[in-house]
Structures are given as C-alpha cells and as structure tokens.
Design a protein that fits this description.
There is one protein chain. The protein has 106 residues and is an all-alpha fold. It is built from six helices and no strands. Helix 2 runs parallel beside helix 6 and helix 5 packs across helix 6. The chain is globular.
C-alpha cells in the first residue's frame, strides 16, 4: 500500500491537512526557472543543506530526480528520507509540490 497515515493532534481541523502552504502555492503558480531547491515546499534549511551537498542546488535538479523516480510517491518519499533526512510530512509536502507543478506544466 502506498497510503501513509498520520496521527493528527487536532482531529477537528481536517481542513488544515488538505490545504497547502503559501510556499507550495507560490511554487506551483509560476515557472520554476532557476529557483533554489529551498523554494520547494517541505524543503527547509536542513534538507536544503543535505540536498545541496548532493548537488541539488536548484529546484529543477530535484524535479529531475522526481521524474527519474517516475513521479512515484513511495519511491520519492524513500529518496527524500535517505538523502535529505525528510520525515513523512516534509517529504510529502515536497512530493505534492512537485506533483502539482508537473500536473500544471508538463
């Protein structure tokens, strides 16, 4: 199963789980250009540093990895965990951000 389940501390706020961040909305709303990898939702300072150490300095570098992994959530999440130290939330945020960008632009 590719589904991931999270314990949410505030079960009454289901709308927050489905909403996207301002960072996500800004990223998917325009061309990627030469944006830094940190422009992708879910990529904070720690993940940015680890990704940059691997040569992923631009958002399009990580998009390339996302496409090589065939836009597969399970594979991308595993990659983000092992390479960037992402957890389920931040890896999922990055996955959804890149997926929506692709859905809008490819």
């Amino acid at each position: 199963s590719k589904a991931l389940f999270f314990h949410h501390p505030h079960p009454s706020s289901h709308t927050a789980m489905a909403s996207t961040s301002a960072k996500h909305d800004a990223f998917v709303s325009e061309p990627m250009g030469d944006k830094p990898v940190s422009a992708i939702a879910g990529i904070g300072q720690v993940a940015q540093g680890k990704l940059e150490d691997l040569g992923y300095t631009r958002a399009y570098n990580l998009l390339g990895q996302f496409l090589v992994l065939d836009k597969d959530e399970e594979l991308f999440m595993a990659y983000m965990k092992s390479s960037a130290g992402s957890n389920a939330k931040t890896g999922g945020d990055a996955f959804r951000c890149l997926k929506e960008w692709c859905d809008r632009n490819l």
